[in-house]
Design brief:
The complex is a heterodimer of chains A (about 280) and B (about 350).
Chain A (H helix, E strand, L loop, with lengths): L12 H26 L10 H6 L4 H4 L1 H34 L5 H13 L2 H19 L6 H8 L1 H12 L4 H10 L4 H12 L1 H17 L2 H5 L5 H11 L1 H26 L7 H10 L1
Helix pairs in contact in A: 1-14, 4-7, 4-8, 4-11, 4-13, 5-8, 8-11, 9-10, 11-14, 13-14
Chain B lengths: L10 E10 L2 E11 L4 E5 L6 H9 L6 E6 L2 E2 L10 E4 L11 H11 L4 H14 L15 H13 L5 E5 L7 H18 L2 E6 L2 H7 L2 E6 L2 E6 L1 H6 L4 H6 L4 E8 L2 E4 L2 E5 L11 E7 L4 E4 L7 E10 L4 E7 L4 E6 L10 E6 L3 E5 L4
Parallel strand pairs in B: 3-8, 3-9, 6-7, 7-8, 13-20
Antiparallel strand pairs in B: 1-2, 1-4, 4-5, 9-10, 11-12, 11-14, 12-13, 14-20, 15-19, 16-17, 16-19, 17-18
Helix pairs in contact in B: 2-3, 2-4, 3-4
């Protein structure tokens, strides 16, 4: 780093390349190792048999537990997203519009789950789930109540970062002064402007739920992660292949979040048409 | 866009009180606005002018008093049913909609058929000179253009009252003046009753039929710009509207004497209820005249600084008792700092205030 570079300045091209390379290698090595492992056979050579078996018609029977876990995880992801949209999102909008003094309190409450180790959460949740099981049954989807809590920090951050750049108070007042009722304000003004935050929160929620293991395992539920561990005991190759596929899915989700977070407009073609019409 | 039968409403505020967590923001505001009138609410920050506007719009519930639009009390009517148009200080265009979609929003809420909606929105954009930018999003418009679209959006529903909450404060000086004049032109054409909040006295005096000067949650004086400038009712108004020199004087028998000149006192009640004795006279810079040094009855002074203001020059002088005063004069005169000059008072009446005011 050059001596005249001010403290806190962005790294130069060389430093940037070095940092990216080191971080890239750090992430790439285990993934490449997994890919290589998935092509190994027991004799020490390479084979595509493991991949073929995953995509064969018999896979749903052979690896039924993985597909059950995947189905459960996707259901859990959907229910958790729903809980997040029904409880967290309206609460955040309400606090922003009507109770701005509660913003700090809400932030504190939402950050708490990230500070509590999963095992501690499970110890606390075990007696709670005995009640949940009595009231709502012991279906796997009930795990979404616990996941709804664990995703709070991530979903809160994603929505809050969007809320902080959109002045929904003024926009709501403008809409109200133009004759909109509260439902129209919500549907026609607030939600379209929080679209990026909501989608990012939803994708992060899906990613967190698909990757969660501790709570599901200790509460004896079959999810993708617990199923992978189970399969790995009998067929480590297939377990690694499913892990890679789950990683790829999460990677695609993150790419989508990245694209949504970039300040692009999807309706670039409309202005010219409307301007022509208006003039 | 043509005036509709429901524009030009009367607006009356009667003893309106508004409290914020132990702080009384409005202390019984009463104001009457005639149909089609343009009234500016002027005052320093925190005086309650925006609160009056928000109370009138329904965005802030009031704690007491009545708000009448065309004689009907609207205190309990929600904001979306008050039929008002509002332009905000901060840019308030909906970022996910184009200009024309923004303008259409109020019509959509009123379930106006799409063909009529589009025609009216285009007409409203034409009114503000932006029909060529109908398809642009807010981030593709300048600040001035955004406020024009916001004005079109507020006008397109043909509201009974138009409320403008410092709509020009975020714009640069040149655009401010252009848009200010444009707002006035449109308001005059449409005949819509308008309340305009500003802290810029030049803006208020330039566009309003009447100006209400506010202080500490109430209206200190309301009148035409000329009335406020020439006959301020209180020392606060005299000091707030235009520039005033604060010069030591003596009040006696309802008249004021300063530097040997005895003048009448402006405002009512006579002498603003002040007791006879030392007071401060509030003298406009244009009521002080630079005269030749040694002129009989003149006040000797030394030039401290001078500024060129385009059509006139303003010079700061120090009198023999160390009082600093400003005087406006022709640009052809070039006093230099340190020059010894002389002043005379012109006019025959001034405002006065207490020494500690």
């Amino acid at each position: 780093m050059s001596a005249d570079r001010p403290i806190g300045a962005a790294p130069g091209p060389v430093a940037r390349t070095v940092i990216l390379s080191v971080v890239g290698i750090l992430f790439a090595i285990p993934i490449l190792a997994m890919v290589a492992f998935s092509f190994r056979n027991l004799a020490g050579g390479y084979t595509v048999a493991h991949w073929a078996s995953v995509f064969s018609s018999a896979a749903t029977v052979t690896y039924g537990v993985v597909f059950t876990g995947l189905g459960n995880s996707l259901l859990l992801a959907m229910v958790t997203v729903l809980i997040m949209l029904v409880i967290l999102l309206p609460t955040m909008i309400l606090v922003q519009l009507q109770f701005p003094r509660l913003r700090r309190v809400l932030e504190f409450v939402c950050i708490i789950p990230i500070t509590v180790p999963a095992i501690v959460v499970v110890v606390g949740l075990a007696p709670v789930y005995s009640v949940v099981a009595r009231l709502a049954g012991s279906s796997v989807w009930t795990l979404a109540f616990a996941y709804g809590v664990t995703v709070l920090p991530y979903a809160y951050r994603a929505i809050q970062s969007n809320l902080s750049v959109v002045d929904i108070v003024t926009l709501s007042e403008a809409a109200r002064s133009l004759g909109a009722g509260w439902s129209s304000v919500l549907v026609r003004v607030i939600l379209p402007n929080l679209r990026r935050g909501i989608l990012a929160a939803a994708f992060i929620t899906v990613a967190v739920v698909l990757g969660e293991f501790t709570i599901a395992s200790l509460l004896n539920r079959v999810t993708l992660q617990t199923a992978l561990v189970q399969v790995s005991k009998s067929d480590p190759f297939v377990s690694v292949i499913f892990s890679l596929l789950a990683l790829a899915f999460a990677f695609v989700l993150l790419l989508l979040i990245g694209r949504l977070a970039s300040d692009r407009r999807t309706r670039r073609t409309r202005p010219a048409r409307l301007e022509k019409k208006a003039s | 866009m043509t005036p509709s039968p429901n524009i030009g409403a009367t607006v009356e505020l009667i003893d309106v009180v508004k409290d914020y967590a132990g702080h009384r923001a409005l202390t019984g505001v009463s104001l009457s606005v005639r149909p089609g009138e343009f009234v500016a609410l002027l005052g320093p920050s925190g005086c309650g002018k925006t609160t009056v506007l928000r109370a009138l719009s329904g965005l802030e519930p009031v704690n007491g008093g009545s708000i009448l639009i065309d004689g009907i009390d609207v205190v309990d009517v929600p904001v979306n049913r008050r039929d008002i148009g509002m332009v905000f200080q901060s840019y308030s265009l909906f970022p996910h909609l184009t200009s024309i979609e923004n303008v259409e929003f109020g019509l959509r809420m009123r379930k106006v058929p799409i063909a009529d909606r589009r025609a009216r929105a285009v007409a409203a954009l034409e009114l503000v000179g932006l029909s060529s930018l109908a398809g642009r999003y807010a981030h593709q418009l300048s600040g001035g253009q955004q406020q024009r679209v916001a004005l079109a959006r507020a006008l397109v529903t043909r509201p009974r009252v138009l409320l403008l909450d410092e709509p020009l404060s975020a714009l640069d000086a040149k655009v401010r003046v252009q848009l200010r004049d444009e707002i006035r032109r449109i308001q005059t054409n449409l005949g819509i009753t308008t309340l305009f909040v500003t802290h810029d006295q030049e803006e208020a005096l330039a566009v309003a039929d009447r100006v209400a000067v506010m202080r500490d949650g109430n209206i200190e004086q309301i009148g035409t710009p000329e009335e406020l400038y020439t006959t301020p009712a209180t020392p606060f108004v005299a000091a707030f509207i235009g520039l005033s020199n604060r010069m030591p004087a003596t009040l006696s028998g309802g008249r004021v004497t300063l530097y040997g000149e005895t003048l009448s006192v402006l405002g009512s009640p006579p002498a603003n209820g002040l007791a006879s004795g030392p007071v401060l006279a509030l003298v406009r810079p244009e009521d002080l005249l630079l005269v030749g040094n040694g002129t009989a009855g003149s006040i000797p002074a030394v030039v401290v600084a001078t500024s060129f203001l385009g059509s006139l020059r303003r010079t700061q002088l120090r009198l023999t008792d160390s009082t600093l005063v400003s005087v406006q004069h022709d640009v052809s005169e070039h006093p230099q700092p340190g020059d010894r000059v002389a002043l005379r008072l012109r006019g025959n009446a001034v405002s006065v205030s207490a020494l500690d005011d």
